[in-house]
Amino acid sequence: MTAPTPATIAANPLMARLAPGEATTDRIAWVKLSLAVLPLKTPISDAKVLTGRQKPLTEVAILFCEIESANGAFGHGFSYSKRAGGPGMFAHAKEIANNLIGEDPNDIARLWEKLCWAGASVGRSGLAVQAIAAMDIALWDMKARRANLPLAKLLGAHRDSVRAYNTSGGFLSSPIEEVLESCARLKDKGIGGVKIKVGQPDPMVDLARVEAVRKLLGDAFPVAVDANQQWDRPTAARVGRALEPMNLFWIEEPLDAYDAEGHARLAAALDTPIATGEMLTSVAEHFELIRNDSVDFIQPDAGRVGGITQFLKIMALADFKGLKMAPHFAMEIHLHLCAAYPREPWVEHFDWLEPLFDETLEIRDGRMVVPNRPGLGFTISDQARAWTVATHEEGKRG
Ligand SMILES: [Mg+2]
Fold first, then answer.
1. For residue 191, how many other CB atoms are within 10 A of its CB?
2. Among 9-13, 165-169, 274-278, which stretch is predicted with the lowest mean pLDDT?
3. Residue 10's pLDDT band (cuts 50, 70, 90)
4. What angle in degrees, to the nearest 10, is found between the helix axes of 108-118 and 308-320?
C-alpha cells in the first residue's frame, strides 16, 4: 500500500494514524462467551420424535458471543443447539476464543480460518464450526454496527423486507383442531405463508391434515409441509405425488438429509418444489445438494454451517445454480441474509428466540421487515442473562 497523500488524509483523518501497509489499527480486546438455556412454553414434536429417534424438544441452548475492540467497537452473535450439544459448543468455543485477542476484527474470513484450524482435529463441520458461528456472527454484527448500517445493507441488500412464513402452528404434537386454529390466526395477523409437519406413521393422516389446512386457507395461500427426514425414497415419491394437487410451495426434508441423490430424483419427478439443508453443518455438505440438483429451495442455517462467512459461500453457489433459498430458524440472523440473496427467498418466522432480545421483528403484508438498526439490530435481554448458566471471558474490556 502506498502512503496516503495529504489530500486523502484531509478527507479521511483516520488514515493519518495508519502506517503504510496497515489498513486499520483497531484490535479485538475482549471476548465473552455465554451459554443460556431457553425454555419452550410447550414440548415440541416432529416426525423424529414420532419414530422414537428424539425426545420432544423442551429447551434450546444458546451460545452467545460478545466482542469488543480496543477502540470500543462492539458486536454480538449467537448459535444454538436443540437437545444435546450446547455445553459442548460452549466448551469448544472456550478453548479457541483466545485466538481472536489482538486480531483485526475486520478480517473475518481470515479469523474464521484461524478459529477453524485451531480446532480442526475435531473436524470442519458440526459442533466445532457451530462454536465458531457465534464468534463469526459477532464480528459481522460489529462490522455493520461500525459502518452504522443494518447487516443486510452492509452485505448489499436486494430488498428491505422478505416473504415470511410460520412453522410454529403445525407441529405433529398439535391436534388438527389446534393447527387449524393457529393457521387461521396467523393468516389474520398477516403472515405470508404457513408450514405444517408431516411424516406420521400413516401418510393418510398427513394427507387429511394438509387437505384440512388447504381448505381452511384457500387455494392461493402459500402452504408447505415438512417431513423432517421421515420417509424412504418410495414413500417420499408416493406421498409426494399424492400431495401434488395441494399446490404446496415446497415439501421439506422428505428424505435423509445426506441423501443428495434421492432428493435429486424426487425433485426431478415432482412438480412440487423440494427443500432441504437445515441439518447440514458445512459448506461442503451443502455443495453436495447444490451440485447434484437435489433441491429447488436450499435451506442453510448460519448457526449450523459456521456463521455468516460460510453462509455467504452457500449463497453464492446456490445463486449460481439458480436455486431459491429459505434458511432454517434464527430469523434474527437470516432476515439480513435473505435480504441480500438475489432471488426472492422466504424467511422462517419462529418466535422462540424473541425473549432473548429487547427488540422484535415486524411482519407487514406477509413480509418481515429488515430493522433499520445497525448490525443485526438486537440487544441481549435481561431475561437471556437470567437464563445464562455459564460464562467465559478472554482479554480485557477497554
Ligand atoms: Mg424443517
1. 22
2. 9-13
3. low
4. 110
Q: What is the pLDDT of residues 56-81, one digit of tens each?
A: 889 999 999 999 999 999 999 999 99
166 C-alpha to ligand 1 centroid (Å): 11
As a whole number of angstroms, the longest Cα–Cα distance in the chain is 76
CATH 3.20.20.120-classified regions of the chain = 152-380
Q: Which CATH number fits domain 6-148+383-395: 3.10.580.10, 3.40.50.450, 3.30.390.50, 3.30.390.10?
A: 3.30.390.10
R_g of the chain computed on alpha carbons: 22
Indicate where the chain has its CATH 3.30.390.10 domain(s).
6-148+383-395
Q: Is the pLDDT confidence value at 21 over 60?
A: no
The per-residue pLDDT for range 128-172, each reduced to its tens digit, is 999 999 999 999 999 999 999 999 999 999 999 999 999 877 888
Active site amino acids: 197, 328
Q: Is 83 among the annotated ligand-binding positions?
A: yes
pLDDT in tens, 366-395: 999 999 999 999 999 999 999 999 999 999
Ligand 1 centroid from CA 228, angstroms: 6
- The predicted pLDDT at position 13 comes to 60
The response to whether 84 counts as a known ligand-binding position is no
Q: What is the mean pLDDT of the chain?
A: 94
CB atoms within 10 A of CB 175: 10
* Cα→Cα distances 89→65, 81, 244, 394, Å: 12, 8, 41, 16
Ligand 1 centre to CA of 199 (Å) is 12
The reply, when asked if residue 181 is annotated as ligand binding, is no
CA of 346 to the centre of ligand 1 (A): 13
Ligand-binding site membership of 47 (annotated)? yes
Q: How many Å apart are CA 346 and CA 330, to the nearest integer?
A: 13
104 is in an annotated binding site: no
Cell of 74: 462492539
In the reported structure, the alpha carbon of residue 274 is separated from the centroid of ligand 1 by a whole-number distance in angstroms of 12
pTM for the model stands at: 0.93
Give distance in angstroms: CA of 380 to centre of ligand 1.
26
- CATH node for 152-380: 3.20.20.120
